[in-house]
Amino acid sequence: METMTLLGQGFSVALTPTNLMLAVAGCILGTIIGALPGLGPSNGVAILIPLAFSLGLDATAALVLMTSVYYGAMYGGRISSILLNIPGDEPALMTTLDGYPMAKAGRAADALVISGVASFVGALLATFGLILMAPILASIAYKFGPAEYFALYLLAFSTLGGLTGNNQAKAVLAACIGLAIATIGGNSSGTPRLSFDSLYLYDGVNFLVAIVGLFAVTEVFVFIESSGKNTAIGVKIDKITIPVRDIIRTFGTMLRGTVIGFIAGILPGAGASLGSFLAYSGEKAYAKDKSQFGKGDVRGVAAPEAGNNAAAGGALVPMLTLGVPGSGTTAVLLALLMTLNITPGPTLFSDRPEVVWGLIAALLISNVVLLILNVPMVKIFVKILMVPPWVLLPGVTMVSFVGIYSISSSWFDLLLMIGFGTLGFFLRKLDIPTVPIILGILLGGHMEDALQRAMVISGGEWQYLFSSKIAIGLWIAAVVGFVAPMFLRKFLKQPDAVPD
Amino acid sequence: MKHLNLKSLTLGAVLSLGMAAPTLAAECIAPANPGGGWDFTCRSIGKIMFDIGAVDAPIQVTNMAGGGGGLAYGLVVNDRSDDAELIVAASSATATRLAQNAYAGMTYDQVRFLGAIGVDAGIIAVATDSPFQNLNELLDAVIADPSSVTFAGGSAVGGFDHLKVLMALKRQGLEDIRTVKYIGVDGGGDAVTQAIGGFVQAITGDISEVVGFIKSGDVRVLAVLTEDRLPGEFGNIPTAREQGIDVVAGNWRGLYVPKGISDDEYARWSNALQAVADSDEWAAAMEANGLTAFNFVGDDFQIYVSNLMGEIADLSREIGVIE
Amino acid sequence: MSDRIFGTLTIVVALAYIASASQIKLPFLVDPLGPRWFPYIIGAVAVLAGLAMVLRPDDEPEWPALMAFGNIGLACLVLIAYALTLRPLGFLMPTALAAGLLSYQIEQRKLQAILTGVGLSGGLFIIFKFALGLGLYGVPKGWLN
After folding, report:
1. A398 → closest Cβ in C24, C104, C124
2. Do B179 and C30 touch (CB under 8 A)?
3. What is the tens place of the pLDDT at every residue in A315-374?
4. How far apart, in whole angstroms, are the C-alpha atoms of residue B48 and residue B51?
5. If you measure CA to CA, which chain B residue comes closest to A394?
6. Inter-chain residue contact A190 with B147, CB threshold 8 Å
7. What are the pLDDT digits (tens) for C67-95?
8. C121 chain-B contacts, CB cut-off 8 A
9. In terms of pTM, does the model score above 0.95?
10. Do B47 and A53 touch (CB under 8 A)?
């Protein structure tokens, strides 16, 4: 009951005309930033902070603007994933797998609507989770030490084989490429390595450089090679209707994706990418008929989008209650809060209830605004595919370059991105999936750090990795996740064993 | 794309109206991703400089992650050495890396340090349910059996947080500091979580990183690494010196500017920084973030940095971080 | 055949990776894992995956004709030149040139390509500089003083 009163106060703060206007502006701006390759939620929020300051916004208004940009970007990332096979940001990576095949088949609008609804469901339920359970959920972070994190990352990698492509060796190889890239640069054992004494490589390779290279630049090369065949650009789009049947059919998928994503979001260091990834692989493992995954299955669009938006909400839990940012974006939000003289931590909910509940109200408002904006805006989005390729592709390329340039203002990252683009072209030809590379880069460093820390703490005892119930549970899930797809594959190869 | 462009153009135009956006605003480089200490320095100091009228236009913050700050350092040394409209965030970590020669041979005298106007006091802390009640008990336990205690801190191995613990242990009489167990995690908050979860036994970091946890009663700070006790609400925490361990280590927040700017330009920036230091806004920002005053602006600061680097280099050599 | 070549290449690169990992300086403090083991494991798994590709290759992919390869190479060169000139020459000129050239590669119409280049360069500059506030310079820095 007290929660409702507090939430009511939050709404009364957040629902002023100015704040509502800011929410709408933030949602639109966020959606655009999210859809632009290279610019994702974290730099989207970061580049808008000066705007909030120069507009002279107070704490609540600034938070309303920033959270609506954050959620807007989470929604927006999927648009370029689906239409162009270029993830607008890293959590939207998994949405390319089924979203783009749907677009190629003329179902771009369906994919956009379903993923929009899934995003709404994920974000909404995650916000309720945040309201009801934030302080309890925060304590989950205390249960995860190095051994548990290592097992969690292992679980993510173990399901890779069953995820993309038909040749498991190629998926493993791709993961190795990503992991090897992740070992470049300084790690927590202190000594920089494999960086060839270059300052550019000292901090390692930024995953955004890889993601934009492997997707956006590669896409340009593929287009030039095929003179525009084999893409979704210019494909005739079916009449735009709301795919009610598909939405109802995938509702369970969305709920499952939300739960997985939310849990991944709560754990600092896992974040939205892991959330969408596990939501996708979990859904694929759960589904009876897996034959359409990767070819345009609506569940393959609904699961990761519910997952990454739920994770985005979940990531606010450790940020607000522990001051521990679980992702790049929450790190920026944390910085914003500190600049506004608000210190997140275990006492934030009691010290500054007006900020917390104003923020939560802002989340709910921007989520509703986004759903309302997104469904009619699908009509506008799909018109992107009608833009002539001689404008669209140079445009996407230039946006990618500026996005990457804004990370470190160096030519080095740009050349590296072109290198990734070239590599991506050959990998695409050889049918080697690129998603595992990105995951390797994103999670490899965390995984090695967890192992390194576990070994320091235990003094080199390997048994330490299995020393808690959570760790053992995750190990079992990892082994099952790795072995099960192999057997299922054999099983599914028998022609009559594929049920509808 | 065309439609998106049109839309964002309109929106951009609308939003730009609210912004005073002159083409030549000064730039503050935060040599790391958004969200860290350097980013905070640029954003807070930049914001206050504009708010109090020390500069005419809002300062534009550029994030330049890379090389642990070395990429930005290289840019200032090589490409923009006479750019008077450029300030760069710095901290004890900058001095540590320069002292450990981690910036590809660049040295501290290739830029001009402008000043530091706040310091984040170093701390050594434990979770509330820990058996250790004071710093001596903790350090003696490590000396008795180094494998019994793991420290967690926000910097990598050999970084500033790690050095603080090693300094304290050396003062307490530990001979072979290489046996001390330390894990570098993703920041002070993370270190606290690992300690509360019981995965590590002690935390080394800065007070700003644990403020919330002190208030909630989850963390007990065994010592602050300052000369005197902190003012205000944390005044009940003893210093390491009081407990007989002479270690003073704080993470100052400051700025440097390119070497080649004129003395007038340097004076203009140091006046602006001093104005921030004297402002109520900065006092409030420091209080909210657990910083304490540390007013060291101008040429003296260059000397301070040089002395500090000497100390860090000696210690790093002693423990083997550098040869 | 392509799979076999790539698999062999993978094995060579993975071995080189392992070799360079063995040269990593060891840290000075207790660290049971050390910075070498993780690279060793990754390298070893990559060798196995490479072997699998050599022994059980998939069907041959459709490689582009020589002409198409030339075009891709050309696009690659344009992008590299763009990357190198973006800072010294400012945003506007390199962007107009690179966008125009890419546009011309996709459809060979001169006027259309020129308009695309100029339009994208100006439009994106306005968005990035003024709406999003990125620290870009439109023209070489020297021109501003």
Report:
1. C124
2. yes
3. 888 888 877 776 777 877 887 787 777 777 777 877 788 888 888 888 898 999 999 888
4. 5
5. B1
6. no
7. 888 889 999 999 999 999 988 888 899 99
8. none
9. no
10. yes
Instruction: Flag whether residue A193 sits within 8 Å of chain C, measured between CB atoms.
Output: yes
Output the pLDDT for position B169: 92
- Sketch the domain layout of chain A as residue ranges: 2-497
Yes or no, beta carbons of A452 and C79 under 8 Å apart: no
Q: Does B17 touch chain C (CB under 8 A)?
A: no
Interface contact flag, B189 A323, Cβ < 8 Å: yes
Chain B interface includes C37 (CB < 8 A): no
Tell me, yes or no, whether B91 and B110 share the same domain: yes
Flag whether residue A488 sits within 8 Å of chain B, measured between CB atoms: no
Average pLDDT score, chain A: 83
Q: Are residues B254 and B105 in the same domain?
A: yes
Contacts of C135 in chain B (CB under 8 A): 27, 60, 62
Q: Please report, rounded to a whole number, the percentage of residues in chain C having pLDDT higher than 70.
A: 91
**Chain A neighbors of B104, CB-CB under 8 A:** 197, 199
- Tell me: do B114 and B146 sit in the same domain: no
Domain that includes residue B99, residue range: 24-119+250-319
**Residue from B9, B27, B28, B33 whose CB has the most chain A CBs within 10 Å, to mutate:** B33
**C-alpha span between A247 and A249 (Å, rounded):** 5
B186: tokens are 């993703």
Q: Which of B226, B243, B260 is the last residue in one of the domains? A: B243
Regarding whether B109 and B41 lie in a shared domain, the answer is yes
For B:54-113, CB contacts with A below 8 A are 58, 60-68, 70-71, 74-75, 102-104
Do B37 and B70 lie in one domain? The reply is yes
pLDDT(B208) > 90: no
User: Mind giving me the DSSP string for A28-81?
Assistant: HHHHHHHHSTT--HHHHHHHHHHHHHHTT--HHHHHHHHHHHHHHHHHHHHHHH
CATH number at residue B94: 3.40.190.150
Place of tokens 């709406």: C131
Q: Do A348 and B212 touch (CB under 8 A)?
A: yes
| Cβ pair B239, B226 in contact under 8 A | yes
Task: Give the span between the Cα atoms of A312 and A325, in whole angstroms.
Answer: 11
Q: Which residues of B touch A35 (CB under 8 A)?
A: 4
Residue of C nearest to A161 (CA): C49
- Residue B264: inside a domain, yes or no? yes
Per-residue confidence at B272, pLDDT binned at 50, 70, 90? very high
Indicate if B111 and B153 belong to the same structural domain. Answer: no
Q: Which residues of C125-138 are buried (b: 16+ CB within 10 A; e: fewer)?
A: bbbbbbbbbbbbbb
Q: Is the pLDDT of residue B129 over 90?
A: yes
Q: How far apart are CA A134 and CA A111, in angstroms?
A: 32
pLDDT digits (tens, 9 = 90+) for B59-73: 888 877 777 788 889
Q: Single out the residue in B243, B268, B294 at which a domain terminates.
A: B243
Q: What is the pLDDT of residues B79-90, one digit of tens each?
A: 888 889 999 999
B297 located within any domain = yes
Q: Does A22 touch chain B (CB under 8 A)?
A: no
Residue among A214, A133, A235 at smallest CA distance from A418: A214
Give the list of residues 6+ apart from residue A350 with CB closer than 8 angstroms, or none: none
Query: pLDDT, tens digit, for every residue of A64-121?
Result: 888 899 889 888 889 989 998 888 777 888 999 999 999 988 888 999 999 999 999 9
Domain annotation covers residue B17 = no
A/C interface, count of CB pairs below 8 Å? 192
Nearest chain A residue to C19 by CA distance is A194
Indicate the number of domains in chain B.
2
Q: Each residue of B8-43: pLDDT tens digit?
A: 333 333 333 333 333 457 889 988 776 677 888 888
Q: Has residue A13 got a pLDDT over 90?
A: no
In sequence order, the 6+-apart residues with CB closer than 8 A to the CB of B158 are A190, B100, B316, B321, C27, C28
C-alpha to C-alpha distances, A390 to A230, A403, C117, nearest whole angstrom: 16, 20, 10
DSSP string, B164-180: HHHHHHHHHT-S-GGG-
